[in-house]
Amino acid sequence: MKNIPMARTHTRRRPMVRLAVIVLFAALLSAAPFHAAFAQTAPALGAAGSFTVLAGTAVTCTDSIVTGDVGVWPGTAITQTNCTINGTVHAGDGVAKQAYIDFLDAYNALALMQCDYVLAGNLAGQVLAPGVYCVDAASTTTDGILTLSGPSSGTWIFKIGTSGTGALTGTNFSVIMEGGGAPCNVYWWVAEAATMTDSAFQGTILAGAAITITRGTFYGDALALAAVTMTGATVTGCEQAGRPVRSRCNQGVGNGPENCDPGNSNQGSPNRSNDELGGTPGDPGRQGGNGK
Q: In angstroms, what CA-CA distances link 130 with 70, 124, 161, 187?
């Protein structure tokens, strides 16, 4: 008789164990999009990834600074007016051609990528973890901040105009990285044109039409099927991310220290530099550099 209660107790536990397994399995399923978002890999840009600006028809740069390579293909026009390009210019050459072909491959691959979440067109006030975010039509954000929060390994992909048409437009629009996220792990696929005005934008744009950047800053690559136009903007490409901009040295003329090191003369120690180290105009010399 003593065995009966034990048998009943054992029988009751089995459904409880099964229920716990079912609940755990359901929880894992519900979390699947979250984990899939973190596992999302960046698109393969190929040779296009070495370009800060790449256009299909023409590049126009006015009163702007571009850090990184600039190219156009199959077009050949690159027009510079008071424009500084800290990189190599490829106007209709074989390098630009291969980059443009790789860009088209990446653009088409992103077009087929499945969405994790669907957003409204106005991105202001959003705080988003890594994932694939889609906007059916156009996305227009004015006087707003988009915060991308996630680890340095996280990837954010935005698809604008997944219904077939839709442009990306930002005016006084800021994209902020939080939690260690990297702007060069952010990608914007756009069905049509992308236009940024007075914005602090981050991420690489792959546009199905033209890209226009007016004033403000742009941290990422601008890749377009049509033209890229920059006016009064500062554009820094992902290939150049984290690389310090070195100034030209003008040593031996008594113009004071310039925070540069011609010929790597410091040999690992700032005290050995050929820079004037405290010298002032009219009083040149190492001022202590190399122990002299």
A: 29, 17, 20, 11
Closest of 33, 67, 79 to residue 238, by C-alpha: 67
Rounded CA separation 273/287 (Å): 10
CA-CA-CA-CA torsion sign (179, 131, 142, 174): positive
pLDDT tens digit sequence for 253-268: 443 343 343 443 333 4
Domain boundaries, the chain: 46-240, 252-292
Cβ neighbours of residue 271 closer than 8 Å, sequence gap 6 or more: 277, 288, 289, 290, 291
Backbone dihedral angles phi then psi of residue 236, each to the nearest 5 degrees: -120, 120
Neighbours of 161 (CB within 10 A): 23
Closest CA to 184 of 214, 159, 156: 156
- Mind listing the pLDDT tens digit for each residue in 154-178? 999 999 999 999 999 999 999 999 9
Residue 68, number of CB atoms within 10 A of its CB: 22
Rounded Cα distance between 267 and 253, Å, is 23
